[in-house]
Amino acid sequence: MSDIYITGHKNPDLDSVCSAYGYAVLMNLQDPENNYIPVRCGHLSSSVRKILESLDIDIPEYKRDIYPKVRDVMMHSDRKIDANDLLTDAAAHYSDKTPSALPVYDKDTFYGLLAVDDIARWTMHELAKGSMITSIPKVRDIMSEQGTPIDAGELFEDARNLLQQSKKRGLAVYDENGYAGYVTRRCFLKCPKNKVILVDHNESRQSIRGIETAEIVGIVDHHRLDAVRTAQPIFIDAEPLGSTCTIVYQLYLRNNRTPDPVTAKVLLTGLISDTLILKSPTATGVDAVAAHVLASIAGVDMEKFGLEMFSKVEGLGELDPESAISSDFKSYKEKGVSIGIGQCEVTQLNDLNDYADTYASCLETVRTKNGLDWAVLMITDVIHECSVLMCTDYKAVRYLPYKQIGKGLFDMPGVMSRKKQLLPEILHAVGE
Ligand SMILES: [Mn+2]
Predict the structure, then answer these.
(1) Interior angle at CA 37, CA 36 and CA 43, nearest 5
(2) Counting beta carbons within 10 angstroms of the beta carbon of residue 341, is it exposed (0 to 12), middle (13 to 18) or buried (19 or more)?
(3) Which residue of 24, 167, 259, 424 could cross-link 264, Cys pair, CB 3.0 to 4.6 Å?
C-alpha cells in the first residue's frame, strides 16, 4: 500500500482542484491496493474556496511540497522493550533484524533508544574487568545519553546529514502527536520517491515544489504537452477538451463506472468553471455531453447551477487587485518580448469604471515585478459573453484589433478565451 498524491497546478483553480478530487475517488475504487490522496499545491482564492465549501466535500488539503521527509523512511517497532526489562529480554530483538537501535518504553511512554553501541560498551567493559557476566542489567541502566530528536517533517537530506555527523546510531522522531518512530543510518541509504499524479497541468515548473524528486505515475490534462521524462511507462490521458474534469468523467466511463452524485457535482463545477458554462470556444461537444450527464447525476439544472456558481465569484472591486491579477496569470515570450496575460471572470462589467484605475496601476506593478515588457488583463463577463482588455503602455497596443474605450482599455465583444482568441492577436501585435 503506498500513498499516491494527485495534484493540480499552482494557483489552484476549480478545474484543477475538482479534477484531483474526482480522479482520486475513481482511482481509490479502481485500485484499492494504493491510497490516492487529492491535494493542492497552492492557496485557494476566496471565490474558489467559497464555491468548494458549497459542495460539502473535504476540500483537498494544501501540500507545501513533495520532497521526501523523515516520516517517509522512519521505522516503527512492533515489539515493545520496557526500560525495566533485563538486557536479555532485549536480546531476542537483535537476532532477527539486527537493528542498530531499538525504541524503549517506560510503560506506554517512549523512553529512548537503546543503541547497539550501548550493549557493546557494557559488554566490553565487563569483559575487560574479567567478569563472567552473571548479573544482567536493566535496559535503562546501560542506555547512553539520547541525541536530540528530529521532526517527522524534516527533509530527508537534512536528516541524513545530521545523522552522518552525529555519534548516535539512531534518533527518535516526533510529530505533532508526540513520539512517531525512529530512524537509524540505514534508513538513509536510499532516498525514497513520493508518487504523484499530475492533473490539469503537465509541466514540472507549474507543479508542486520538489516534483523533481518525485516519481510521476500519471498525467491527466488538457493543456499543451511539455511533460517530464519518466523512468517507467506511465498512464497519460491528454485531450484537447474544455476541462480536465471532462477527461476524468470519461475515465469513469472507460472503467464502467458512474460517479456518485457528490462527485458528479464536483466534476461539473470544474467543467463549468473552465468552459464558462460551455460558452468558451475551448468547450467541445464532448464537454457539453459530459456537463449534461453530470448535471443529471447530481440532480441539478446545468445552466442554473452554473449561473449560481459564478454569482459566488467576487467582483473585482471587492478583491485585492494584485492577488486578483496574479491568481490566473500566464507568461509568454514572442520575438524576444516577454508578455504576461491575466484573466479574471466577472458576472457584469457595469462597475468597470469603479476599479479600472486601481487595477491599471496594479497591472503596471505586476509587469515590473515579473520583468515583463507588456502586461495585459482580460476581464471576462461570463454571463454576457464578452471581455474588456486592460493593457500597460506598450508600442504593440496600437496593433490590437479591438476598439479602444478608455486609457489602455479595449472592448472585446464575444471574446472569452485567452488561449484561443486573445493570445493569437497579442502575438500578432508583438510581431508587427
Ligand atoms: Mn483546466
Answers:
(1) 155
(2) buried
(3) 259
pLDDT tens digits, residue range 228-281?
Answer: 888 889 999 999 999 999 999 999 999 999 999 999 999 999 999 999 999 998
Asked whether the beta carbons of 360 and 413 are under 8 A apart, the reply is: no
The confidence score (pLDDT) of residue 96 equals 65
Question: At residue 312, does pLDDT exceed 80?
Answer: yes
Q: Which CATH superfamily is domain 72-188 in?
A: CBS-domain (3.10.580.10)
Q: How far does the centroid of ligand 1 lie from the alpha carbon of residue 242, in Å? A: 7
Q: What pTM did the predictor assign?
A: 0.82
Residues with CB under 5 A from ligand 1 (ion): 15, 200, 244, 274
What spacing in Å lies between the alpha carbon of 338 and ligand 1's midpoint?
23
Q: Where are the domains of the chain?
A: 3-68+194-311, 72-188, 316-431
Rounded distance from Cα 244 to ligand 1 centre (Å)? 5
Average pLDDT (172-193) is 94
Q: How far is CA 326 from CA 13, 50, 343, in A?
A: 12, 19, 9
- 52 Cα distance to chain centroid: 16
CATH top-level class for 3-68+194-311? alpha beta
- H helix runs in 338-398, sequence order: 352-369
Cα–Cα distance, 197 to 220 (Å, whole number) = 8
Q: Cell 546529514 sits at which residue?
A: 161
Gap between the Cα atoms of 164 and 77, Å rounded:
22
What's the CATH architecture for 316-431? Answer: Roll (3.10)
State the pLDDT at residue 348. 87
Q: What distance in angstroms lies between residue 385's CA and the mean position of ligand 1's atoms?
A: 19
